[in-house]
Amino acid sequence: MSLLKINNLKANINGTEILHGINLEVNKGEIHAIMGPNGSGKSTLASVLAGKKEFEVTEGSVLFRNQNVLELEPDERSKMGIFLAFQYPVEIPGVSNMNFLRTALNEHKKYRGEEIIEPGTFLKLVREKANLVKMDPKFLSRAVNEGFSGGEKKRNEILQMAVLEPTLAILDETDSGLDIDALRIVAEGVNTLRNSENAFIVITHYQRLLNYIVPDFVHVLHNGKIIKSGTKDLALELEEKGYDWIIN
Amino acid sequence: MSNELIEQITKSDYKYGFVTNIEQEYAPKGLNEDTVRFISEKKNEPAYMLEFRLKAFRFWQQMKHPEWQKVNFPEIDLQDIYYYAAPKIKSKPKSLEEIDPEIRDTYNKLGIPLEEQKLLAGIAVDAVMDSISVATTFKDKLAEVGIIFCSISEAIQEYPQLIKQYLGSVVPYTDNYYAALNSAVFSDGSFVYIPKGVGCPMELSTYFRINAAQTGQFERTLIIADEGSYVSYLEGCTAPMRDENQLHAAVVELYAHKNAEIKYSTVQNWYPGDKEGKGGIYNFVTKRGLCAGDNSKISWTQVETGSAITWKYPSCVLKGNNSIGEFYSVALTNNYQQADTGTKMIHLGENTRSRIVSKGISAGHSDNSYRGLVKVARKATGARNYTQCDSLLIGDTCGAHTFPYIEVENQTAVVEHEATTSKISDDAIFYLNQRGISTEDAVGMIVNGYAREVIMQLPMEFAVEAQKLLAISLEGSVG
Amino acid sequence: MNLIENIKKSLSENILNLSDLEQALKVGLPNPKTESWKYTPLNFPISNYEISTKEINSQNIELFKYVERFSKENDIPLYLLNGEILNVIPNLTKTNIEKQYNYFIKDFFYYLNQSTNKEIYSFVFDKSSENKNYSFIVGALAEDDNFLANTSLSFVIKKDTEIEFDFYFTNFTKKSFLQNNYFSFKLEENAKLKINILEDDPNQLNLINNFYLDLSDNSQLNLSVFAIDGIFTRNNIQVDINGQNCDALLNGLYIGTKKNVVDNHILVNHNKPNSHSNQFFKGILEDKSRGIFNGKVHVKKDAQKTNAYQSNKNILTSADAQIFTKPELEIYADDVKCSHGATSGFLQENEMFYLMTRGISREQSKSLLLKAFVNELIQKIENSNYVDWLDKKIDNLI
User: Fold this and answer.
1) Which candidate from B376, B391, B412 shows the least CB-CB separation from C331?
2) pLDDT tens track of chain B, all 479 residues?
3) Count of domains in chain C?
4) Does C96 reach chain B within 8 Å, measured CB to CB?
5) Domain, as residue range, for C220
6) Spatial distance between the Cα atoms of A37 and C72, rounded to a whole number of angstroms
7) CA atoms within 13 A on the CB side of A184
8) Is C274 found in the same domain as C171?
9) From the list B439, B449, B453, which residue is nearest A95 (CB)?
10) Averaging pLDDT over each range in A229-233, B43-47, B95-99, C234-238, which range is the top one?
11) Which subunits sit against A, judged by 3+ Cβ pairs under 8 A?
12) How far apart are alpha carbons C313 and C264 in whole angstroms?
């Protein structure tokens, strides 16, 4: 069943068009990988889906659960179930991870008409989830991402994903800057959360991550357009031959 | 940040702007020697107090209004305000039950119940409305350990020895224009004496409320911590919404003897004026602590969100060897508010230490200045100071300024000052948005995170109140 | 005031701006109530000063030493003695006085300077002036005591021109001398200017130096000021960033000895967006000297994306030395990165101890550590002659 439908999406920043008409459909239960060389528009696509204001959508539509989300604020999209794991998670001094996550979760719960979660219950939940990404609980009392290493930041992203349980998670180069152990932990987190009701878009530069998170489909983004789609074998082929053979 | 967003954030509403309808008693409008005599007589003061007031008044008459501050306001017509306004009470209530229900209701609305049993455990309150103290709770319990906690009027009557010895000993009436004025016309305030070796078993607190129109509030607070004692004192302030500007010129004196510690916290939420900058309180306050004895410590913590103009520098004079002064401040200005605030750390004794953490937040069309002085005198060998001074700007119609004065006359001193300026980044807001947190909440969260280091210094109940206050002061829609 | 009377007496009316002299008298000398002079005492008898009318003695031996130093190929020295230009260099023209003066703070010294400068010299430097060593030697050769010189110059650095100036402020005599100097610089688009200012002279130099710099789009300024010796030194340096993508680096080192007063007042105005400025000042205060630093960054409403930094570090080496520092920020734009820091400290005993355990004497250890403290600044100068000279100077002092 269709979860996300992107139709001829064009977007620009400061007057320069970055996305030149993207078409993509993601169904529940699927994992899609988006690959492509630097500057192809991968991160732009992720930001536009999450609703970053710097980007102006000039054409096309994005249907998420059959609703056009392009007019919605970023927090509304989040509460509908879109999650973006940032390539560069932001540091927010003084705001504790715990407080931040509980506020976020309660916003989601309010949106769904559920009871808000009590601090005690939340603590239990978040400890459980932290264990999933092998994160030391002491990070929970620290300020959001402040002074975290690259790998810790990425694990923190996956922890947030685990707590918020989105229906569509977009992982923007989550593998960049990770060593092999961290990569495996992140991938395990994703695989545990994966089920028939949600879907993932994994944006990556390298095939490496896809050994751990096995995609159903692989798309190659180049110059703001998807120029080739295939199965996981396409990723292997790219690894072997590079991007040139498709581009030229 | 987009303009609409900034506009939304900077539109705030003041929740304490109601007026209590009670009968008030006034001194005739205006200021002259008769006003001073009237106040003294009204309060049935002994001769020494009248003398103190008149000396201050005569000195004040010779003074000129200062001009160095970075705040602008039209000249205040000091003849056009009432110097004494008091809720009409036939006789001072003997118990809390006798308090006028209207007044009691006022403090309930402000979240300050005066009935002892309803109070948050462990906080004794002195409630001051306009010119007089209307109630002091937990007095008896404190008296058991020898602590005096009462209104300053009462102290003038009951403890003349202490008053004579300490009143004006930290802030002499010659200190500045408003200190002189206060010394002449102060009407009430709180008095605290902690005897030798006593750690005060509960938080002491004064809640100041300006109610009457066209009235100045000139309260006077004196806290004395005798050798080896400890006290934590809290101060809260609100006022009704009025179109006029009202003057609040208080004096607070802290006196710490050997090995004593005083912790003074303020959550200041005087009416800041409306969105066009009309009305609001002029908060011109002199606060100073003297670490007179060796190893004494005075710590100021303030969260300032109110007042049309805030103009004050809670200071520490570190006279005793090894004494410590601290200043933690969050000053938030919005709309047309102005703040020129900071501290003075005067190192006189050996191995004295001071620490300053100042966090300014400017929004709307406001101006927010940190002004501080760190002075290491010639004999203050081994003195240390660390100052951290940050500014956060929301929008491009406000200003943030830093004026730190550093004067070092001793070669062994180590003085460090650091300052940064930043804004709330779009990236941080987007990040929080992406996790489902609305922009308004995101701003509140980021601002509270930014101010956390200071808020953590406040006692628990006040910290919670301060956090809410910061969020509310920047809130867009009325919640 | 004697000073004003002395000037009136010694100069004929056709070279004197009487109204400015009156104005100086009206404004009066700065005093401790003047905020910008709060900590800066005039520690010399200014009111007894006068303008010298005697002829310049060009046989002075000290002057000779300078002439020798600047006689290499590509050296272009300009001698400004007693407020007058002694020799001619290329690019020199005379200009209207008004333009030059508008920017400066109108205080006593401003009117004093203007009163004896009806016309001022202006220099225009373009591409053809590049790759030369320009040195400006500003000094005194009078045989009178308590003697005042008002110097005023204006510079234009044309578009795309890259140039370096060395300024020397000195006194060739043993007489007490007050220099009251006003220099303005206009950097056109994409111009690059490097200025090294050496203020040194043990011979009774009292110095009031005003530098005003106006930066256009994409221009770069790299200014270093070394106030090494002198009874009284006051530097007012103002940079107006009136273009985008400018870079202004201001470095300073001051060393106070004896009862000297050394004061740096720096103001950087960011009037346009996307520029960067950095103030980096260090001071050593010895004996009974007094140091004053006042650095100010002013970011206007439209100057978004400004990066401005400021740092002032001081070491006091004596019980009688003093430092008064005030690093200020005034910010009206929200998307900026500004920070400042100031410290005052003394030589760390543990560092001293470490060096002494290796057999280095206390005095030598102190000197080593102080050298390390100042080296950071000296390293920023590329002119090796200048560095050697400065090194020697500093060695003598510490």
Assistant:
1) B391
2) 555 655 555 555 666 666 666 666 777 777 888 888 988 888 889 999 999 999 999 999 898 888 877 878 888 888 888 877 776 655 555 566 666 666 666 666 666 656 554 444 456 677 766 556 666 777 778 889 999 998 898 899 999 999 999 999 999 999 999 999 999 988 888 899 999 999 998 888 887 766 666 667 788 999 999 999 999 998 876 666 666 777 888 999 999 999 999 999 988 887 778 788 788 888 889 999 999 999 999 999 999 888 888 889 999 999 999 999 999 999 988 888 889 999 999 999 999 999 999 999 998 888 999 999 999 999 999 999 999 999 998 888 889 999 999 999 998 899 999 888 888 888 899 999 999 999 888 988 999 999 999 998 888 777 887 888 787 777 642 22
3) 2
4) no
5) 2-346
6) 57
7) 3
8) yes
9) B449
10) C234-238
11) B
12) 13
For residues C321 and C19, what is the distance between their CA atoms, to the nearest angstrom? 41
C262 & C372 share domain:
no
Based on the domain organization, do C315 and C364 belong to the same domain?
Answer: no
pTM summary value: 0.84
User: Residue C124: pLDDT above 80?
Assistant: yes
Domain at A2-96+166-247: CATH architecture: 3-Layer(aba) Sandwich (3.40)
Closest CA to C282 of C374, C178, C378, C176: C374
Residues C373 and C325 in one domain: no
Mode of pairing for the β-strands spanning C205-215 and B399-408: unpaired
- Looking at the structure, tell me whether residues C338 and C356 fall in a common domain: no
> The tokens of A58 are what?
């000039």
Residue whose entry in the numeric block shows the structure tokens 């400061």? A14
Q: Are C284 and C255 in contact (CB under 8 A)?
A: yes
SS3 content of chain B, % helix, strand, coil (to 5): 25, 35, 40
* Residue from C166, C128, C116 nearest C16 by CA: C116
Query: Least CB-CB distance to B441: which of A86, A92, A103?
Result: A103
B439 contacts in chain A (CB < 8 Å): 73, 75
- CA-to-CA distance for C277 and C281, rounded, in angstroms? 13
The predicted model gives C112-132 an average pLDDT of: 85
Q: Is C339's CB within 8 Å of B402's CB? A: no
The Cα of B468 is separated from the nearest Cα of chain C by a number of Å equal to: 24
Q: Which residue of B has its CA nearest to C342?
A: B417
What span, in angstroms and rounded, lies between the C-alpha atoms of A149 and B199? 44
Domain range annotation of chain B = 14-431
Query: Nearest residue on chain B to A84, judged by CA atoms?
Result: B434
Nearest-CA distance A117 → chain B (Å):
15
Do C58 and C192 share a domain, yes or no? yes
- CB interface of C with B, residues 315-334, below 8 Å: 316-319, 321-334
Tell me how far apart the alpha carbons of residues B314 and B370 are, in angstroms, rounded to a whole number.
12
- The pLDDT tens digits of the residues spanning A51-69 come to 888 899 999 999 999 999 9
Q: How many CA atoms lie within 13 A of C181 on its CB side?
A: 36
Based on the fold, state whether residues C156 and C301 are members of the same structural domain. Answer: yes
Residues C81 and C66 in one domain: yes
Nearest chain C alpha carbon to B369: C330
In the structure encoding, which two tokens stand for residue A216, read together? 């159903």
Phi, psi dihedral angles at B152 (to 5 degrees):
-70, -30
Q: Which long-range contacts (CB under 8 A, 24 or more apart) does A26-29 make?
A: A26/A2, A26/A168, A26/A199, A26/A201, A27/A1, A27/A2, A27/A3, A27/A199, A28/A1, A28/A3, A28/A167, A28/A196, A28/A197, A28/A198, A28/A199, A29/A195, A29/A196, A29/A197, A29/A198, A29/A199
d(CA B316, nearest CA chain A) in Å: 27
**Three-state secondary-structure class, residue C315:** strand
Q: Are C154 and C101 in contact (CB under 8 A)?
A: no
Amino acid residing at C246:
C
